[in-house]
Each structure stands twice: as C-alpha cells, then as structure tokens.
Amino acid sequence: MIRNYLDKINVAFLSTYPPRACGLATFTEDLIKEIDKIAPLYNPYVDTSVIAVSDDKYTYDTKVIKEINQFNKVDYFELAQYLNDSDIDLLVIQHEYGIFGGESGEYLLDLIYHLKIPFITVLHTVLINPSDKQKYVLKEIGKYSTRVVTMAKNTIELLENIYDIDRRKIVHIPHGVPYIYYGERENLKKELGLEGKIVVSTFGLIGPGKGLEYGIEAIAKLKNEFPNIVYLILGRTHPGIVKNEGESYREKLLKMVENLGVKENVLFVNRYLTQEEILKYLQASDIYMTPYLNKEQAVSGTLSYALSCGRVIVSTAYRYAEELLADGRGILVEFRDSEGIYRAIRDVLNNEEKRKEIERKAFKYGKSMWWNVVAEKYITLFHEVILEKNAEIGGWKKWSFSTLELTTYSD
C-alpha cells in the first residue's frame, strides 16, 4: 500500500532478533538502533519495526510487531497478507539460508511470491558452489527483490553470473560495526585483569567451523618465545550446536589446551558478551585472530569489529578476509595451518613499526564501516526505493533529504 503523501517511511525488518542468540539478530538490532538515532534528520524519516523469525519461545521488546515460526510454512504466506494490508511501505529481509524454514530456506519464497510491497534483501552468505536448491532460492529472491545488498564487493560478480541477479539491483553497503573508544590499550588490559600480557583474541559464537584448534596450536608454539602471551576465546558455543551436539567441541578444545600445556595461556570466556565487553576486549587486544575453515565465508561481523578497532588481524584467507585485509590492512595465512599463524604473529610482535602501520591502515578503513556511516547508506537506499515505487504509480512528490554516497553497480 503506497500512500500518495509520505511524511515517513515505515520499514519492517524480517530477521532473527534478540534475545535469540544469532549474528543476524545482533546485526539487525545494531542497524535499527543507528537508523532510529539519525532518522529524524531526514524527510521523510524512517520508522522501523521488526518481524521476528523464531525457532523457540522468546520475549521480544516492543520493536517487534509480529513474529513468525521459522518452521511453519503457512506463516510465510500469512505474513505476506499481513504486510499487504498494513501501512508498511518497505520490507528488509536479512537473508541467511539457515534462518528460514524448508530446504535451503525455501519457505521464504511463499512470502515474496505474494508480497505486494517492495522489499530489499540483505545477503549474509553468498556461496560460490551452491547446491541446486540454494542456487534456485537465491535466484528467485534476487528476481523479486527491488534491491539486493551485499556486504562484500567480491560477491557482486557471483550474484550476477551464478545467481542471474540484475547488476542494476545490486548495492554494496559494508557490514556495520559499532565504535566507542573505551581507553588506552594498557589501561583496558589492567581493567580486564590482563596487565603485562600480550593479548590475542577471538570472539563470537563457537563451533567447529571456527578453526580455533589451529589458533591454540599456534599459541603453544609462541609461548616459549613470548611466555606472557594470552589467547582469549570469547563467547559461548553456538546454541544450535549445543542443541544437537552438546559441548563436545568446547570440551575438545579444553582437552587440547591441557595436553599442550597452555592452560595459563588460553583463556575461555564462556558467555554471550555485551557490545561494551566485546569492544573493551578488542581494544585491549594486540592481535585479533580468525582461523576460520570456510573459504566461502562472505561476511564476518567479528572481523569487521576488529578492523574498526584498528587491531592487527591474522586470519585465514576466506573471501571476506581477503577483501577487508587487502593492501596491508592485516595478515592472511593458509587454512588449517597453525605454523603459518605462529609465524605471522611472531613476525608482527617482533616488528613494532609493522604492527603500527597495519593498525593505522585497519583503523582508517574501519571508519567507513562505523554504524552511523552504514545507517546513512541504508536510509538513502530506502528513500530511493520508495521514490521509484511511487513514481511508477504516478503518486510521488518531491521530498527533501540529503543525497548520500551510495555505491551501485549499473555498468
């Protein structure tokens, strides 16, 4: 339902949402908070709400106006009817195959086939070698989406060539990251009980794909030369893994730590950290490590966080890391290579000038990913889509809003 005159744009986000422990939930909450903060500066301003995708019973805040059962096919069709009859002007779908029901999230198609309002899809995973069903689902989403947002430039060719998405629809907007300065590194180390330590960290929901065992092996090699080194593994085990496998992966890591004799050098913080805690730990770190095992990983919020804090990052060469850490903004190593991680960390710890140069480049690049910058790009995109839609039906009037930088790919 497109109104003839708009003093605001009602935008609903279809996503997981806190308290559900999920990277998309955190992303959506952070983005909405920043949009809400700056939206009054724009005419028409953006009014946000959430349609939560649930896999269990959760108590949501008032931002959530509707909830669907991830595994109930009917809910997706009924959601389309609900949105078509509402005053929502635009739907933003946060897409990850695993958060929607059916094979490869195919239940989502029951929503988009029946939706009459425009929608934007934000992609959190773009696979190089999708299954036939994964390819089909994303092709259909791209076909019906008004815009498709990718957070990594190196996925644009994939979206066009593998998934047949019209290049004119594709918009690159970086993964947003918070930035609040909490103090000097050494002061934060003291506050966190890490005074006098060389701090290496990894944070996020833990699971076998994180490759943490290779990071632990690297620390075991480093401790002889740097006995004060500490590797912080920050975060609880992914709830989906706990549900299906229990804590077997964490127990494996704990046993490895004991066998390698690094109980004093590898510390686990086994809980879901607040944003303030994450930023404090990152700003207290000397090195951030992502030894992930999946080459195809297109986006990593944790890597984005570390880059925005201007920390030296040592990472396996998954696709998102290759893009973000290019031009000397970090150090890439091979997969499943604890020796490579060891050499990379040793090299930077022995070269103060190199460490400072990497930190400088990382921080400079990371500023383009701060949430206030990213939220402005989304607001501009929302305005653009609604203006186009209203122009199609002959009902638009000129609005006054700032023209912000937005990178599209039309040639």
UniProtKB/TrEMBL annotation:
InterPro entries linked to this entry: Glyco_trans_1 (IPR001296)
Domain of life of the native organism: Bacteria
Presence of keyword DNA-binding: no
Keywords: Transferase
Domain Glycosyl transferase family: 185-364
MF terms (GO), sorted A to Z: glycosyltransferase activity
Cross-referenced Pfam families: Glycos_transf_1
Protein name per its UniProtKB record: Glycosyl transferase group 1
